[in-house]
Design goal:
Layout: H1 7-30
């Protein structure tokens, strides 16, 4: 017995897949380690000697 997938089923499956992928992406991006803080350097002032 073969079952046909209707357009509604296909849209529901695709929507679920997109939602799942989006949720996984958001969770993964939230768990990334923060970049190390940049060392504070004194500002470099460019002076022109005339």
């Amino acid at each position: 017995m073969t079952e046909q997938i209707t357009t509604t089923d296909a849209v529901a499956i695709a929507g679920l897949a997109i939602a799942t992928g989006t949720a996984v992406y958001i969770v993964a991006s939230q768990n990334q380690p923060e970049p190390p803080p940049k060392p504070t350097e004194p500002p470099i002032t460019l002076t022109k000697n005339s």
